[in-house]
Design brief:
Strand content: 5-15%
Radius of gyration: 26 Å
Low-confidence stretches: 1-34, 451-456
Strand order of the largest sheet: 1-2-4-3-5
Number of strands: 11
CATH architecture of the largest domain: Orthogonal Bundle
CATH topology of the largest domain: Lysozyme
Helix content: 40-55%
Length: 456
C-alpha cells in the first residue's frame, strides 16, 4: 500500500517515555497530547483518539509475548507497568498479573479524595501518569479501571510477513468492489493474516467470520467452509463492509461495525446524535460496547500505520511471496479424483490451494457442487477449459440440491438463475436479502429457496 502523508508523519511516535525502577518492574508514561499523525483521508484519526492509537502501535511493535502491559481501561495510553513473565507457567502468569492489577486498584482507591501533598513516592508516580486525565475520572471505579494486555510484537511481525501471500489479492478484490484499500489492514487485527485462524467463540479465517454472518455471503457447511478460503472470505468481507458503509454512513463506523455489528452502531449513532467516530467511541455507553468495541477502530488505525511503514518499527521485513493460482468455476458437480486426473495435479497441492474443501469432498464421498470456483496451479490457466473436457459426461453428476446454494457463473442474471431453478424472481431476491436492482458477480453464493416454493 502506498505510504500516505499521514503515515509518513509518524516520526518520533512516542512523545515522552519515562522509565524508572519501581518494585522490580518497568513503568512507562506516554503523553496523550502529542500529535502522532495517524489516519488517512477516509479513515481519520481525530486528536482525542491519537493516544489510543499510539497505545496499540506500541502493543503491536514494542512489547513481546512475555510482557504484560498493565494499563488503564478508560485511558489505555496510561501504562502503570510492564510485567515481565518470561519463564512463568500460565497459572503463574495469571497470578502475577492479578496481583499487579490488584496493587494498582488498591493504590487508586487510597489516592481518591486525598491531597497530592500526602502521596507517597509510588502514589506520586501514578498521579504523574494520570496527568491530562479528566479529574472526574481520575480515580473512579479503580477495580474496573485496571487491565492487562499481552504484547504481540512477534506475532504481528509474522502476520506482516505472511500478508505478502494474500495482500496483493486482497487489495485487488477491494479495488474491484470499490472498497477503500486501507481495509486490507483489517486482517492484521482480526487474524494476523492467518487464513486458518479460529477464535474460541467459533470465528474463522482471515476475516474471522462467525458462522451466522459467514452464511450470508459464503458456503459454511460440513467440510466446505469458505470462511477459511482467503479469496472467497475477502470477497465476503468486502460485500459486508460495503453494506455496512451504506447503512451506518461512514467508513470508520463500518469498521467498528465489523466488531460490534451494524445494529449496535446504529443504536450508538442514534444515542450520541452524530456520526463522529471519536464522540461515539468515547461517549457511547451501550451495555455491549466494551473495551474491544471501543478500541477496534484504534487497533485498525495502528495496524494501518505499522503496515504502511514496517521498517520503521521492525527494520527490514521479508514478505512471503504472493499466492499464485488460476480459478475455474466448475460447470458441473464432479468428484475430487476426476479433478486430479483432468488437471494433472496432486491431491495435496489442490487441497492446499482450496482450503475450504474438507475431507468429506477430498475423499470422494461427495462431489464438489456446480459453480464452485476451484483454484488451480497457475500453469493451468491457459488450458483449464480444455482440460475439463477430459471429464466424461457420466462423471458429471446430478445438479446440486437447493440446500447447497448456487455459485454465480459468468453471464448469469438473477432472472436466469430463478428460471433455471424453478422459483420466482421475487422469492430468490427475498431469500438473499437483495433488491431488484442488485448486481450479482461471478463467484457470489446465492441461497436457493426450495424449488417448490414459487410464491412471494
Amino acid at each position: 500500500m502506498p505510504l500516505t502523508p499521514a503515515a509518513r508523519a509518524v516520526t518520533n511516535f512516542i512523545a515522552a517515555t519515562i522509565a524508572v525502577a519501581c518494585l522490580g518492574v518497568t513503568v512507562a508514561l506516554v503523553s496523550p497530547s502529542r500529535a502522532f499523525g495517524y489516519g488517512t483521508d477516509q479513515f481519520p484519526c481525530p486528536p482525542p483518539l491519537e493516544a489510543r492509537v499510539n497505545f496499540w502501535v506500541r502493543i503491536f511493535t514494542e512489547f513481546g509475548k512475555d510482557q504484560r502491559v498493565i494499563h488503564d481501561t478508560r485511558y489505555p495510553w496510561v501504562i502503570y507497568e510492564i510485567a515481565d513473565v518470561t519463564g512463568l507457567s500460565q497459572p503463574q502468569v495469571k497470578l502475577r498479573v492479578a496481583r499487579r492489577k490488584d496493587h494498582y486498584a488498591t493504590l487508586l482507591e487510597h489516592m481518591a479524595g486525598r491531597s497530592p501533598v500526602n502521596f507517597n513516592q509510588e502514589e506520586k508516580r501514578v498521579a504523574d501518569l494520570l496527568v491530562g486525565v479528566p479529574e472526574v475520572g481520575r480515580y473512579a471505579l479503580p477495580r474496573e479501571r485496571i487491565r492487562s494486555q499481552s504484547g504481540v510484537r512477534d506475532s504481528f511481525l509474522n502476520g506482516l510477513r505472511r500478508s505478502g501471500i494474500y495482500r496483493p489479492a486482497v487489495e485487488a478484490i477491494l479495488d474491484s468492489l470499490g472498497v477503500p484499500r486501507e481495509l486490507a489492514c483489517l486482517p492484521h487485527v482480526e487474524s494476523g493474516y492467518h487464513p486458518g485462524a479460529t477464535s474460541k467463540v467459533g470465528a474463522k479465517g482471515l476475516w474471522q467470520f462467525m458462522p451466522s454472518t459467514g452464511k450470508r455471503f459464503l458456503r459454511v457447511e460440513r467440510d466446505l467452509d469458505e470462511r477459511v478460503d482467503p479469496i472467497r472470505a475477502t470477497e465476503a468481507a468486502a460485500r459486508y463492509l460495503l453494506d455496512a458503509h451504506a447503512t451506518v454512513g461512514t467508513w470508520p463506523l463500518a469498521v467498528v461495525s465489523y466488531n460490534h455489528g451494524i445494529g449496535g452502531i446504529l443504536r450508538a449513532r442514534s444515542k450520541i446524535g452524530c456520526t463522529d467516530i471519536d464522540r461515539i467511541l468515547l461517549e457511547y455507553d451501550g451495555p455491549a460496547f466494551g473495551f474491544a468495541s471501543q478500541n477496534f477502530y484504534c487497533e485498525f488505525l495502528a495496524a494501518l500505520a505499522v503496515a504502511a511503514d514496517p521498517s520503521r518499527y521492525f527494520g527490514a521485513v521479508h514478505f512471503d511471496p504472493p499466492l499464485a493460482c488460476a480459478e475455474f468455476p466448475l460447470p458441473d458437480p464432479v468428484r475430487w479424483d476426476w479433478l486430479l486426473r483432468a488437471f494433472s495435479v496432486e491431491s495435496e497441492q489442490l487441497a492446499a490451494l482450496n482450503p475450504a474443501v474438507g475431507r468429506y469432498y477430498t475423499s470422494g464421498r461427495r462431489p464438489l457442487p456446480r459453480g464452485y470456483i476451484l483454484r488451480l496451479p497457475p500453469e493451468r490457466t491457459a488450458d483449464a477449459a480444455q482440460r475439463w473436457t477430459v471429464v466424461p459426461a457420466s462423471a458429471r453428476l446430478a445438479v446440486s440440491s437447493p440446500a447447497d446454494g448456487y455459485r454465480v457463473l459468468p453471464g448469469d442474471t438473477l432472472g436466469s438463475i430463478a428460471t433455471r431453478h424453478g422459483v420466482s424472481l421475487a422469492t430468490l431476491l427475498k431469500a438473499n436479502g437483495l433488491r431488484a436492482t442488485a448486481v450479482i458477480r461471478p463467484g457470489q453464493l446465492l441461497t436457493l429457496p426450495g424449488a417448490g416454493d414459487r410464491g412471494l
